[in-house]
YqxA family protein
Amino acid sequence: MRWAAQVTALLMVLMFGVFLGIDTAEQNIQKIQGNEGAPRAVHITPENGRVEISVMGHVVETENPVSQENVQRVNQVKHSVQQNSGILAKMGNEMGSGIRQGARKAIEVIVGWLDSNDKNR
């Protein structure tokens, strides 16, 4: 249990360091280029139930929640993508799904350990 807590804490600290490093690097790049205060690489602005996301100057607007899901259209697009994708894409998607499921299971186990230890105290 102690080992799992240490690994989890280490991963959290490393992720925080990565995000802090990216932010610091972006600020320093802006200072060097002389355009301090310019829009960030990723800028998120929520307004009146809509979210505007600007990534490297490209603006994407979303509306939340989606008014209605067209299940037939989703299945049609999914079938089209499956027919047009190659074997490497399929293998990559299956590997990604497996990694995602494994990570979720690992998190469930770790949280289960933490919950069981809290109840024992």
